[in-house]
Design a protein that fits this description.
180 residues; mainly beta; Pnp Oxidase, Chain A; 7-stranded antiparallel beta sheet; 3 helices; globular; binds flavin mononucleotide
Length: 180
Amino acid sequence: MKKDIGNSPALYPAPLVVVGTMVKGKPNYVLAGHVGIIGHDRIMVSLAKQHYSNRGIKETRAMTVNIVDEGMLKKADRAGCVSGNKVDKSDMFVFHTRGTGAPVIDEAPVVMDCIVDDVYETEGFESFICKIDGVYAEESVLNEAGKIDYHALKPVLFEMPTYEYLRTGDVIGKCMNVSE
Ligand SMILES: Cc1cc2nc3c(=O)[nH]c(=O)nc-3n(C[C@H](O)[C@H](O)[C@H](O)COP(=O)(O)O)c2cc1C
């Protein structure tokens, strides 16, 4: 018999991202685990209303979603510990801009440059529905077909109840080939 453990999301582990946006003309970064996929061309990022980043996202209607790998985890963790409301995080990462003007982090292996389509408000949170304008990936994480190779990328996963960072694991099967 299953035990009732409340009503918090139980979708972890989840891939971790650094969301980059321009606030008052300078980049700001926030670490986020509450990210979801919508259809084939949109994603959703859920951020607490008081975050400094939200200001820039709403002003510019643009953000980047930078996949965190182990190489950038220390800096990403810091982006999740200090707020732009108190600390200038603009020089935390080397960046450049592409289509939307939001900061594309140079050391992130894969970056989605996004246009904010809509904002879904719930108590204390703004969830940004984003249309993907472009995806930029380091060649080192691409396979011969030019697609992302997740064995090379190794995205960091995040687990909420314990607040731990995890590695991805082994391949356990090919999709649509494991049914009996
Ligand atoms: C592992 C981790 C994951 C986080 N995920 C989220 C998230 O999904 N949504 C959110 O609103 N805050 C999240 N945070 C908290 C923000 O990253 C943190 O409060 C940050 O300092 C806000 O930055 P800003 O005020 O400069 O935007 C997370 C923090 C950590 C350490």
